[in-house]
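REVIEWER CHECKLIST
Item 1: Sequence provided? yes
Item 2: Single chain? yes
Item 3: Sequence as submitted:
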Amino acid sequence: MKASEIRKMSAQDLDKKLLELKDELFKLRFQQAINQLENPMRINAVKKDIARIKTVQRDIELHGANS
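Item 4: Structure as written out by the authors:
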């Protein structure tokens, strides 16, 4: 997911997507713990997506929705 796509989302969509990604990360870590993870690079991708969403949320919090 690109940052430009994230910036186009509404605040509610960002919250919803963040919860989905955190849930996915939990499931991926669980799969990794029991050695059933097929793509270990997916963990890094999900972490980066979470960070991007949090960054956009913080930017909106500081500068308002018009930035």
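Item 5: Key structural point noted by reviewer: The domain at 3-63 is CATH 1.10.287.310 (Helix Hairpins).
Item 6: Recommendation: ____
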